[in-house]
Specification:
homodimer, alpha+beta, 3-stranded antiparallel beta sheet, 5 helices, 3 strands, 53% helix, DNA-binding
DNA sequence: TGCTTTTATCGTAAAAATACAATAAATAAA
DNA sequence: TTTATTTATTGTATTTTTACGATAAAAGCA
């Protein structure tokens, strides 16, 4: 992207945007859905599950890990990933507060 | 961004990603928060409210409108924008279902 | 009609995101 | 130690996003 002028926005606005940006790609949505679905760690089968090259998946996993939404533990030659429960809950609170604002009762335009 | 291979993902995954992408910039988050805050239409003061150039704001508004999250009606020389209530509610349902999935009870990694 | 105000569009420079081949790194197995 | 397996990193071409100056378009006012 071009350079977003983050300094002119509040911390909350930037935080919401950062979370949203990581959900802004279907591959990462897919990875997260898979982690929820299997209800456990994913050890290595993500590349087969999603049809992207291994470096691409690794890059997406890194972004999710950088935001703290998933965690990975080394298990032999492979790495097991799962949802970071605490951080996911914290993210959810922030996003729900943004999405769940009261809509105006009156019709204006 | 580079080209996302949307054809290899489900409609839902692409829909979630599209909504998230539009929230993935603090300026658009700010615009939406302002629309909620004033609980009415915004007619022209968005450029002063947010510190970006007028064409930039116009571009962000267009993206929000393209996704149907806001609507605008012409009012003289200015245009009044507000949240599109039905579409916002629909978007919220999709996003909440994604964010509010059950976390695994067991600690795996 | 001519001028002002407000918003949209066009064009474009700069920066970021995406995808993947090539390669490195790390661990297990032989 | 050598080989195999799995994941991370590097490098890079392509595309998209962002921001804004310049300009057009649309409506009100003089």
């Amino acid at each position: 992207m071009g350079l977003a002028k983050t300094e002119m926005f509040t911390d909350l606005q930037n935080e919401i945007a950062l979370y949203a940006k990581v959900f802004g790609h279907p591959a990462r949505v897919s990875i997260l859905q898979h982690l929820f679905k299997i209800d456990a760690c994913v050890c290595g089968d993500l590349v087969n599950e999603i049809g992207l090259a291994q470096p691409t998946i690794s890059q997406h996993l890194k972004e999710l890990k950088n935001l703290g939404l998933i965690q990975g533990t080394v298990e032999g030659t492979s790495v097991c990933y799962c949802i970071h429960k605490e951080n996911w809950t914290q993210m959810k609170e922030v996003m729900l507060k943004f999405l769940d604002q009261d809509l105006p009762k009156s019709d204006c335009c």
